[in-house]
Design a protein that fits this description.
With about 55 residues, the protein is α+β, with helices and mostly antiparallel strands. The chain has one helix and two strands.
């Protein structure tokens, strides 16, 4: 068995960095995607709260 050293892992990578172990890259596509997903999640939470608080007869 080979023993691998623990590699550095980053959540966000800067635009000009030459790294392979990251989840998000700091660029306009990632920011736009983040905002779209955040708006959708906020809307879904709002709709859930709205319909959850209505009284059915």
């Amino acid at each position: 068995m080979e023993h691998k050293e623990k590699e550095d892992f980053e959540f966000v990578k800067e635009k000009n960095e030459e790294k392979g172990n990251y989840i998000f890259k700091k660029d306009s596509i990632t920011k736009t995607g983040f905002y779209i997903i955040a708006i959708i999640l906020i809307a879904l939470i709002g709709i859930t709260i709205y319909y959850g608080t209505q009284v059915t007869e």
